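Hi support team,

I submitted a single chain yesterday and got back a structure, but I'm not sure I'm reading the token output correctly. Could someone confirm the output below corresponds to the sequence I sent? I've pasted both exactly as they appear in my results page.

Thanks,
R.
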Amino acid sequence: MTKLLIVESPAKAKTLHKYLGKDYEVLASYGHVRDLVPKNGAVEPDNDFAMNYEVIDRNAKHVGAISKALKNADTLLLATDPDREGEAISWHLHQLLSERGALKDKDVRRVVFHEITQRAIQHAVDNPRDIAMDLVNAQQARRALDYLVGFNLSPLLWRKVQPGLSAGRVQSPALRMIVEREREIEAFVAQEYWKILANNQIKGNAFNAALSVYHGEKVKQFTINNEADANKALAELKALSNGSLTVAEVVAKDRRRNPAAPFITSTLQQEAARKLRFTAQRTMRLAQRLYEEGYISYIRTDSVNLAQEAISDLRSLIKAQYGDDYLPSKPRTYSTKSKNAQEAHEAIRPTDCRLSADQLSAMGADERKLYELIRKRTIACQMAPAILEQVSIDLHAGSADNQFRATGSTIKFAGFMSVYLEDQDDASDEEEGILPKMVVGDEVAVDDILATQHFTQPPPRYSEASLIKSLEEKGIGRPSTYASIISTLLGREYIDLDNRRFVPTMIGKIVNDFLTGHFEQYVDYDFTARLEDDLDAVSRGERDWKPLLDEFWQGFSQQVEEKKEISREEVMQARELGSDPKTGKPVSVRFGRFGPFVQLGSKDDEEKPKFASIPDDWNLDHIELEQALELFKLPRHIGKTEEDEEIVINIGRYGPYVRFGRKFVSLPKEEDPLAVSLERALELIAEKKEADRKKHIKEIKNGDETLKVLNGRFGPYVTNGTINASIPKTIEPAEVTLEESLALLEKAKERKAKRGEGKKTKKTSSKATTKRKTKASTAKGSAKRKTRTTTKKS
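Hi R., thanks for writing in. Yes, this is the structure output for that exact sequence:
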């Protein structure tokens, strides 16, 4: 009897071949085999939320291969991943094969394993089950919700804000978090404060102590908040101490520090971001490969549980490598915060804790780094706590009315810290040092007393680790979605990365303001979290999925209909800056279909308003009247070249530029188009001409047209302005003939035509997909376009 077993990835299929006998054939579905049709009507709210699916083009051949292989098999085992997505893939494949009649007289079962080991796989195939429709329906409900939000909000954004934009059900609250944090930072007002520190030594050992009591009052952050008070305190304290401080109290106490729980998806992403500087997407890709090769357990999990067999192996390893002192008397247990952790039964752990990263010779360096992080965290979670001795010493300057305090800590027993220590994002840079031994009554020499000025800092921008942590705390999305949330926001250019921190772009702020202003409930953190809880309830069989969709759709669809009637002026929230001193006309900042601009005048004026594009690096929220008026000075005619070419400075579609004659050269990002001098413009023009000269090799006349031979990024080439053809190394570019050039161009034209034919799709559905993508791409491109002139029609 032959059994056909289906997994998601070819790498996993290859690994399973090692463990299954000759009676098994293993094939991959290559992920999802079908999805909603990419057009309106894919989900039908008026037809009991019927969902219209189609086979994913790139995976059609894999479905065909599975269907063909079934002819020689008696049993079909669906072994896709052990989560909602995996369950849905199995169901979709079952549906497709059933429609094709490929499952007639076949035994079809679902098998699940959380690690790719001989024991786990054998246990899975020995204990098959039916497809869990609760999990499938939870996945269908999520997909339907995302579709209904995307396909109804995005067109509204196109009409009211800018073409090519899109809104996501889970991405939008994440964007809101980033924008709100940025506005906290922008609104932040720094406060001054001063710290007073004594540099001391005793028996040749130096240490510092901070002022803790001043004039009998406990020192707080803003007790001393200006230079005059700081200098006054310094003079008093130096006089009172007279070169020494007296040890008044020494307090030492032990503190136990317990290890962190083993990794779940979100904590792995956070620690990999902090320790390895991996993005969430990169972490998941590397972890997937480690899982598929059988080195770690399943990577999409909310559970911190470990199998008893794994705990036994860990305790055995700890005792052998570190000794009895590092092994707790009984195994450590951890509880999960997730209500739905039963979906995946274990934390992320090595399948064999004795296997070090160095032994993973088939893996790349990044996979080994991630594996070692997982392995050390897993070992540490079953080790004894660390014991730290914390010491605080109070020192008097003359009397108890003025005191300094020194704090420090030492590790008395390393425990789990000998293996692994969790990083903390945005942690303070100040660390406690080791203090010299002191007893009450000791006199401590004061080398100096210093006052240092400080200012309060705004809340930090989100890093990838801190954003994931906040998303998890607020219940937005689920661990398996965090990587895609972040990559989607970056891909849509709603946020940028600056020094590994997320900064909202101008368009990101505009989209967020539109959504929070007109669809506040649907980007509300609590609402989004409750919806996630409802989806979890569906997966557990506690809720029906279609009533959940109906409950959401009734309110959402009504809101969409209402917002269709609002004007674009209401959406864009134009900000008035004041009046132009010359004309008295109003000046405002706006965001148009082609980007941000300032407007002089109003649509009600007899004379049409004037418009000026705003440079990309200007903050739309902070532009003032004087800055806006300066933009109307563009284009600037600043002189001529030696060749009598007019030199003009302006802002165009691709940013600020210098035009000389009919040619252009971009202004460097850091240069202000309103301040560029004639001398600087001539420098840029000279550099451009020199670059063009080096690029130009020769020209060849061909009747009325001129062929150009140029140096390009990938080597020399010939062009007729439409077709580019590389010049082979066998031909000297400077000596290429007209005949050779025409032959090269003809071959390049033929290759281009063949590539075009190869890209043509065979199915109407794929044509629709291509058309939709092209339209979106065009819209996105037009969204970036900026006017080159300072006046245009409204």
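A quick pointer for reading it: The chain has six domains: 3-131, 146-188+461-563, 192-258+391-455, 265-279+289-384, 636-695, 697-780. Let us know if anything else looks off.

Best,
Support desk
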